[in-house]
Amino acid sequence: MAKIKKKGQSGQAKNYITRTQAVKKLQISLPDFRKLCIWKGIYPREPRSRKKVSKSATASTTFYYTKDIQYLQHEPLLQKFREQKVLEKKISRALGRGDVSDAARLERNAGRPDQTGKPRYTLHHVIRERYPTFIDAIRDLDDCLSMLFLFANLPSTTSVPAKMIARCERLCHEFQHYLITSHSLRKSFLSIKGIYYQANIQGEDVLWLVPYKFNQRVVGDIDFRIMGTFVEFYMTLLGFVNYRLYSSIGLKYPPKFDQTKDDKGAELAALTLEGVNLATNDETTKAIASGEGHGPDPKVQAGVDKLVKKLRTESDGDKADEEMAEGEDEEEKATDAIDKFEPAAPGGDVLPQPTYTGNDPSKLFANCTFFLSRETPRQSLEFILRAFGCKRIGWDPILGEGSFTTDESDPSITHQIVDRPIIQAATTEQGDGEDNQTAQKLGPNQRYPGRIYVQPQWVWDCVNDEELKGPELYAPGAALPPHLSPFVKPTQGQYDPTVPLEEQETEGEALDAEIEDAKDEAESEEEDSEVDNDMDVADDNDDDEEDSDAEEDEEEEDDEEEDEDEEEVLLRQRELEAEISGKTVKSKQVDPKLKAKLDKKKALERKKKEEAEDLERAKGMLSKKKRKLFEQMQYTNKKKSTEDMKLRSKRRKLEKEKAAGKA
Amino acid sequence: MPVLKAPAGNTDAPSQYKQPSRKGKKAWRKNVDVTDVTKGLDELNTQIIQGGVIADKDSADLFVLDVEGDASITKKFPKIKKGLKSDEILAARSAVPAVSMRKRPAHDKTTDGVLPVKRQRKEYVSGKELSRLKKVADGQHNSMIDIVDAAFDPWAEEPQPEPEKAVELAFLPQKGKPKKPKTLEQLSISLSANGKPIPAIYVPKGGASYNPDFTEYRERLIEESEKAVEAEKKRLAELEAERIKLEAAARSAAEAEAAEARADLSEWEDDSAWEGFESAGEELSIKAKRPRRKTQAERNRIKRRKEEERRLKHEAAMKAKNAQAERIKQITLEVAEKERQLALEKAEFSDADEVGDDEKLRRKQFGRYRLPEKDLELVLPDELQDSLRLLKPEGNLLKDRYRSMLVRGKMEARRKIPFKRLAKTKITEKWTYKDFQLPA
């Protein structure tokens, strides 16, 4: 007989521990326990059966793994928590006795461990423990960055001290500087919540959200103690990540921080990057400042130069964007050396393509000089423009220190970003009348010649499409094109408004459209040849065909023979109608091109049917459960694809109308 | 006015009744009888007051050797006339000079011209600081850990330091590092309904753009508005249910009241019955059944009836059983169908997204409090602007981050408790009046 097991000595009862038990075991207070758990990455767990773990547990009892808590007992930070507890006791005893000065002294001494010989406590060891490799740390950077950028933008209160905010801000700026020098920012998106950024750091995509400035309402139902604990941990983490990133590109960490500049609102410019070697210090800083340290690809540079030149000439307003497109095409031809991975089978997955297009993203704005008007969001614009190669950014002095120029009339400015409406009333009168008073300033609607005026969205759209977009769509006062999310991956066969129709329609759809076109043409010819022919015949044909098309769409099980039968029926009907109306039968009105297309379509359908049959056979091999699953999947896919097809056909119609309008 | 008396009883220090010996265990330390010591001290005090300790004095000061008589002595010391005790007490003068009541001694009025250095109050603690200290004592400290600039790379390959150990201590077992449990590496439990891990930041959909594409925006708007309509419907249904419940309660209360009133009205009738007045027509005719033996025929009839009953019962049971057996088949079919449906739904969910949904949460959550609802993040159509300057940001990022932490299962939900629960105080009268006695 097996040994009788005692209850509560093994299994779930041993593996889990309640929160209260854990707190008692570690001999710390509950808030301290919470802190420790957050730092060490110990999360609440869910036992399979609460009853087996503990009989007295209620629904709200939280459980932890016993092993985790056991491991916590080796934590050096625990000592600090206990010391703190002792200190608290000492202080409260002194206060109880009325020895206020004693209490103050105790507290003061605890605050300077270096002088009292007590050890300092940091979270350094925790970082290494939780993220064994650097890549692990980068994978968790999403949360870290979102949190720190958020706290950098909070107003300071008693629960969020100003010191913490300043530190968050500095760490964020350091990180931004790394992104700027390494050109690893990839995408950005203006959402209603804030601005999303995506960077690629050592092959990992990092996505984070930055709030808009001056917009944080601090609501009451948030536990700032817990948030503060997270922020403390993340500050340490980002510090190390920054250190590693800076040293990977040969920079000294921490970069030099200028307090006076920061007080004047310089933000990014308050930090100066330095090379690691003191001897080569000046060179590297210069190199970073001028951006030549990374050795630009001459070919790419030439391409970008050409493009920018074109853009400049375009600003005069006489060039259309066709030419630019041509230029791009040429460029692509010239540099199109990268392989394209295409799916082997038509239904296969879309493979991730190498993202090397004609323009290097790091040189996107390299030859531009920007000026930001005072109503634009300077912080985000500055960061994005710098990250995409812009070196000279000026802004209104009201937006803070650190600009390339504060003079709006600087002749070197090529682009100006404005976001104010065009004032309609009485602009010309005023502009003339007050000339002597405001000789320096421009009138409300006046522009400096020779520079491009765009709205802020232009920058984001350029960055996301990795090309300089035509500025005329983004002119001040113009109705902007929609700002699409760059993160939404188009699935195969999905309707994508940004891609031309030819690239995304399926073969069958294209054929259908062509047949339609050919028929239309034939009809028009017919009409030309026989003006007095009554239209009923053609209309009837059309209707019938549409019907049959629709049927084909709905049920793909129509047989080929049936199709042919149908056609014969149609033919016969036509003959009958012709007899009635007293005309000769035009059996040869289907021209060979149309016929070839029809044949092609038939072949396609046959192929489709064969595939479907194959699929049906394969489905027979599956288990019942899996088959049902598969059917469901097919159903949803079909629903989606029909929706997409509708959208595409709508667009086709619109395009056709447009073409007709032009012709 | 009542005359106050000194508190009754002994004013001495509490003591054991008798301590003939201090050797016993009972007499250790506690309530040692010190009366003889205090008595001695009192005596010493009186001696000092009267002009010095007698034991210390020279015998010449105390005694005079009178060798010849003095005739005038009787005049010098008149016959002692006993006066009043109070006069005697008042007349008594202490040999010890009184303590000066002056703040500054009289001789301090002249100075040497050097002003004393004003002592700085180093130990002064301001009120603000004091309140902070109180908070610290209460466990509310800001930060215990130092956050310093990173000065090394924690992920760099560090050289393993060779454990140096004296040869003579080699037999001691090496103290190894505590091993990290495997459970520590498990992901936190996602609170989404489909159980998939929830990302820290959701990849934004096109509808969240400040200047969205129309179709995407419409989709989102419809989705959100449907949700809002659902919520409102639910709320209204709850209100209605509440109302109906209240109405029913009111109705039943009214009925009960009415019944009571009726009972009150008809009270005298019942009373009359109670008291024994009854009208003549109400005389009951009771037919008493006479006890007698059952005949055989009766017995047989009863037996037959019982048999019949048993048979019918059995038949009914069999019928029910058969019906249930039939039903089982049906139920199994139904269950299979339902399971299939569920599996399909699940499959559809799992197919649609690899990430968890943070709006549809699972029923079981951590902690006592429910998770906060997600804010509605939608710019209404009339507020939709295509200019970045005019954008009114939606949602609260702070709340969003906090909720994200909770939803990802990093910690249990907490609620702010604005006021700490204070200890209940009970006011009572002090019984000090028992310390006095009123004279009879």
From TrEMBL, chain A:
Pfam families, sorted: BRCT, Pescadillo_N
Record field: compositional bias (Basic and acidic residues): 588-597, 607-619, 654-663
Gene3D superfamilies for the chain: BRCT domain (3.40.50.10190)
CDD domains: BRCT_pescadillo_like
Position of the signal peptide: none
Residue ranges, compositional bias (Acidic residues): 319-333, 502-568
An annotated GO BP: maturation of LSU-rRNA from tricistronic rRNA transcript (SSU-rRNA, 5.8S rRNA, LSU-rRNA)
Stretches assigned to the BRCT domain: 360-476
Cellular component GO terms held in the UniProt record: nucleoplasm; PeBoW complex; preribosome, large subunit precursor
Keywords: Coiled coil, Nucleus, Ribosome biogenesis, rRNA processing
Biased composition (Polar residues): 428-440
Main localization category: nucleus
GO terms of molecular function: ribonucleoprotein complex binding; RNA binding
UniProt family annotation: Belongs to the pescadillo family.
Name of the protein: Pescadillo homolog
Organism: Triangularia setosa
TrEMBL record, chain B:
Family as reported in the entry's similarity comment: Belongs to the NOP53 family.
InterPro entries per record: Nop53/GLTSCR2 (IPR011687)
Keyword Secreted among record annotations: no
Full protein name: Ribosome biogenesis protein NOP53
GO cellular component, one term: nucleoplasm
Position of the signal peptide: none
Cellular localization per UniProt: Nucleus, Nucleolus; Nucleus, Nucleoplasm
PANTHER family: GLIOMA SUPPRESSOR CANDIDATE REGION GENE 2 (PTHR14211), RIBOSOME BIOGENESIS PROTEIN NOP53 (PTHR14211:SF7)
Free-text function comment from the UniProt entry: May play a role in ribosome biogenesis.
Listed Basic residues bias regions: 20-29
Ranges of biased composition (kind: Basic and acidic residues): 295-323
Lineage of producing organism: Eukaryota, Fungi, Dikarya, Ascomycota, Pezizomycotina
GO molecular-function terms, A-Z: 5S rRNA binding
Domain of life: Eukaryota
Keywords of the record: Nucleus, Ribosome biogenesis
Pfam family of the protein (one): Nop53
Region (Disordered): 1-29, 285-323
